[in-house]
Specification:
- The complex is a heterodimer.
- Chain A is α+β, with helices and mostly antiparallel strands.
- In chain A, 11% of the residues lie in helices and 13% in strands.
- Chain B has a single domain, classed as 3-Layer(aba) Sandwich (Rossmann fold), CATH 3.40.50.970.
- Chain B is built from ten helices and eight strands.
- In chain B, α6 links the parallel β5 and β6.
- In chain B, α1 crosses α6, α3 packs across α4 and α4 runs parallel beside α5.
- Classes of the chains: A alpha+beta, B alpha/beta.
- Chains A and B meet through α1 and α2 of A and α1, α6 and α8 of B.
């Protein structure tokens, strides 16, 4: 599984960049549709959950994201993880 | 589990500032809520006034947004009239400790079956950054431009002294510990109080050279001391002063009888 950032929710607080122990995230350089420099998942292969499909560990980025913008995406199938299929109203 | 099952999708994204800790607390709370297996249909969320008291507006459940400081009083009434409902109070430091201080102390004393989550952001964030009762000593706010001369309240120690069943304090940097603590408090009867020291980058951090949310989280990480170690290190500390520390951990976990058990409980709930 790899973390994925929902650009509709991210407010570019960069808490994930600070929290990730493996530096998977980096500060954004491109402006999102909402006008924020949303963080990007620059090194998903460094994530503790790289190659895992269940019993995820760490999850500091998902838990600490104040906007619930980070969710897990399965690398092998390309299916969207939980939390991302939802549409904002 | 999809975390958005618990939220009102039409209200999302929320209005909290970028980097506000309220979202983190919501995230941890609903992971714990899911783990405990509570149902939204059987839960009432009560809040007062403040940034953190906006949280029930985003929850897909029955909620009551009450007058300033009176969240615990309203929640006590709900619990006594409908004992079968689970009542959760989301409140802030100004709401719970300042204007609602007496309700808080007497709620702990009565030991009503409530789960109170106090998001302490060290400032009156919604009204523009005035010093609150939990603003640390020497820290700057709009009403204390030369540093706060007062010492802050220690809400968790007050709850211990007043007789709450479960008291814990964590920060938004300790997300896993906070989730475990919420699980423990939801599983317990009686007045369960969790204080979450949270970041307010807009009104607290910006004036105290910590405008970046990650700077505030680093401050929490550096100044947090576990309670068992803290007692040995400093007996007479005041939490969150300039040279001080944030004592984190589980303060107390006891099995006092709750209010509706003492008063017969169901006799109040017959009216519905």
């Amino acid at each position: 599984m790899r973390p994925e950032i929902n650009l509709k929710h991210c407010k570019a607080c960069d808490i994930c960049v600070y929290m990730c122990p493996n530096d998977c995230f980096s500060r954004g350089v491109d402006i999102s549709d909402r006008g924020y420099f949303a963080a990007v998942v620059s090194a998903p292969e460094k994530c503790f959950n790289h190659g895992r499909t269940k019993k995820l560990i760490c999850e500091l980025c998902v838990l600490s994201c104040p906007d619930q913008a980070i969710s897990w995406k399965d690398e092998s199938t390309g299916d969207e993880g939980s939390g991302n299929e939802h549409q904002t109203g | 589990m999809d975390i958005f099952d618990f939220y009102r999708k039409d209200q999302w994204p929320h209005v909290f500032c970028p980097g506000c800790g309220n979202g983190t607390v919501m995230n941890c709370f609903f992971r714990a809520f899911d783990k405990v297996g509570w149902k939204l249909d059987n839960t009432v969320f009560v809040s007062g006034i403040g940034c953190s008291s906006r949280i029930p507006l985003y929850i897909n459940s029955d909620a009551i947004h009450t007058t300033h400081g009176r969240a615990i009083a309203f929640a006590t009434g709900i619990k006594l009239s409908r004992p079968e409902l689970d009542v959760v109070v989301f409140t802030g430091d100004g709401d719970l400790g300042a204007i609602g201080g007496n309700h808080f102390i007497n709620g702990c004393r009565r030991n009503v079956d409530l789960d109170v989550i106090c998001i302490n952001n060290n400032i009156y964030g919604m009204t523009g950054g005035q010093a609150s009762i939990t603003t640390p000593h020497e820290y700057i706010s709009t009403t204390t431009p030369r540093g706060n001369r007062e010492y802050p309240f220690d809400l968790a120690e007050i709850a211990v002294a007043a007789g709450a069943n479960y008291v814990a304090r964590w920060t938004t940097r300790h997300v896993h510990e906070l989730t475990k603590s919420i699980v423990a408090s939801l599983n317990k009867k009686g007045f369960n109080f969790i204080e979450v020291v949270s970041q307010c980058p807009t009104n607290f951090g910006r004036r105290n050279k910590m405008a970046d949310p990650s700077a505030l989280l680093e401050w929490f990480k550096e100044s947090s001391v576990r309670r068992d170690k803290a007692r040995a290190a400093a007996v007479d500390h005041v939490d969150l002063n300039l040279a001080g520390q944030i004592t984190t951990g589980e303060f107390v976990s006891r099995e006092r009888e709750c209010y509706h058990e003492r008063t017969g409980g169901s006799s109040h709930g017959d009216g519905h």
